[in-house]
Amino acid sequence: MAETIWNAIVTCYNFIMDNLLFINIILSLIIIFFQRRSPQTVWTWLLLLYFIPILGFVLYLLIGQDFHKSRMFKAKEIEGELKYAVRRQEENIYRKRLRLANPEMARFRDLILYNLEAGEAVLTDNNDVRIYTDGKEKFRALIEEMKRAKRYIHLQYYIIKDDELWRQVEAVLIQKAKEGVEVRVLFDSMGCRSMHNRDWERLEKNGIMVAEFFPALFGSLQLRINYRNHRKIVVIDGRIGFVGGFNIGREYLGQDEKFGYWRDTHLCIEGAAVTSLSVRFVLDWNYAARENLFLEDKLFQIPQYVRNGHDPVQIISSGPDSQTKTIHDNYLRLIHHAKEHVYIQTPYFIPDDSILDALKIASRSGVDVRIMIPCKPDHPFVYWATYSYIGDMVAAGAKCYVYNNGFLHAKTLSVDGMAACVGTANMDIRSFGLNFEVNAVIYSERTVQRLERAFENDMTKCTQVTRKVYDQRSLLVRVKEQFSRLLSPLL
């Protein structure tokens, strides 16, 4: 049997090598004529396929396939309710009847309307938003809220690692399942590749429902590096929700020597925006589990809120299933809105031309543009491409910082202390169109200024990348930057 399998592999390999030129021509035609990609991405793939044919072919299998679909996730059962709420808010905006607590927020009326039109993101204004920048505090709060669950816990993470942190979370989930609480765990196959089937089976044996997003095709062999579900969502009883950058693993508690302290940003939301997070989770769950949770009305009952918040919030999402790059467009529109300053924290800064140009224009127009990146890479090519684009921003007059107190993983953009976009999306091409992401857009001086105070506190732990510092980088760094930047459309 083993010999038969080996012979089949050898035959397949010989066929590919004998016909590699023909295969690459076919792939080139598909890329050019049948897939709507940016010219930069097309040329990058063509160069790889023709000048490094073997590597180009392997990379195309891993990260080049286009899985964009018009509607991968459908919400037919609630489509009518969503459209009614959306159209009602649109009418209020057009007739200038939308009332926000702070009249100055009216300047973002066009962005609110865009999110309604492009992403059916209803604006809710009764939210209490808490901000967590430390992993220990975030998971302490998450575990305490899960212990209070009465009806259900929906938990979705890109990365879950079988370590001491997961065992704490797992113990609570199992206990709540024994108490009759419905517990669902949705994980991404690539992000959780270090987990084993027995880990998920253990959950199922304890009454927890588990679903896997884009499972590996052959055992643990994962041919889809792109199109990963990068979202991190927890919804408890429809009452409280968590969204942001932290995954589940000891490094997110600052207990990994490689990264040191882990600086991230995560939100805890209580209010009507949690319903939007719940819908987002259910859409992902229905696709992965082949179920239809929208038929279960109890999952969407409006609960009593303990905190009477007043933060206006829209939950937006994007991915290969979206017709528009909603999160990308929110970043872009917020930059255009800036009159005083723009603060950006991101582990990967690989903007497309539109965002790069918008930031340069803002900086050269007197807007105080500040960008903060990590001091160490978790993905070397991505890091050096990031540093290359930081050089562009320094030349345009922006203030750029390297965070020295561990690893910076926060994904935040704030404008003028009034509006912010926070969530799972990095400022890079992968997050803009290749991965499934979710962010919260917050229109609240109280909350946004807390985010900006955290940014300013982080600046005390940073080294500024001045033009002089950037120009003094070594020849080796320059080579790394240029090579990585050539690959940036694929990163």
Describe the structure.
The chain is of the alpha/beta class. Helix 2 (20-33) packs antiparallel against helix 3 (39-51), helix 2 (20-33) crosses helix 4 (53-64) and helix 11 packs parallel to helix 12. The chain is built from 17 helices and 18 strands. The longest helix has 19 residues, at 76-94. The strands form two sheets. It has a 16-stranded mixed β-sheet that branches. Strand 5 and strand 6 form a beta hairpin. Helix content is 44%, strand content 20%. It is globular. The protein has three domains: 2-64, no CATH class; 76-91 and 128-311, Endonuclease, Chain A (2-Layer Sandwich); 326-490, Endonuclease Chain A (Endonuclease, Chain A, 2-Layer Sandwich).
Short description:
This protein is α/β, with parallel strands linked by helices and 491 residues long. It contains 17 helices and 18 strands.
